[in-house]
């Protein structure tokens, strides 16, 4: 059992399936009281009933107050897990502004809005935990999906900013950055996901394992695929070489489409 989460009041957004459901189950198994959020009310209710939690359906950007009330007025852990993947079209194709707007709103601004609502209480009492489900795309970039890659960089940057700004005031932040995970989002990623992500894809429970190890050891950056650390180092050490390698992957993908 991880002492830091026993008895905690936890909210997991986008928890009707995939990584979010795995996180909700793990927090509940560790003795936390969990609010399960999802746009799909039936899916949220099913997971909540399974774990003895509470379901709060709706947009992750707007449910902080309702989730707090459901937990008796306090949130100890907020898991900003809800996310969307959009390809946004390619240069030369009609720009799909709505895909960029949705990606920015869900993948970045939902995190910003939640933190804005939660921080006053956390700073007053000197404790709180913000868990951001980012993606290795937020560290490395993913072919074929500009809105997803760009906004996941934003999500990572915001989590990093929260950590460096508030850690001395008791706020703990964790950024989860997996590569492929066997979820509906992976299935929807098409041929790019099949080429880059599926060969090393892991289960949602593996992501939960990595997070709880990170909580126990008070780590900010959570890498369910440990090899991402080496890729990140290589990208920083020699950006030209890294970009050349990724361009080769891009060209390989183009031959399979």
UniProtKB/TrEMBL annotation:
Domain of life (superkingdom): Bacteria
Oxidoreductase as a keyword of this entry, yes or no, is yes
A GO MF term: oxidoreductase activity
SUPFAM superfamilies in the cross-refs: NAD(P)-binding Rossmann-fold domains (SSF51735)
Q: Which PROSITE patterns match?
A: ADH_SHORT (PS00061)
Record keywords, A-Z: Oxidoreductase
Q: Record's family? A: Belongs to the short-chain dehydrogenases/reductases (SDR) family.
Full protein name: Oxidoreductase
Q: Which organism is it from?
A: Streptomyces gancidicus BKS 13-15
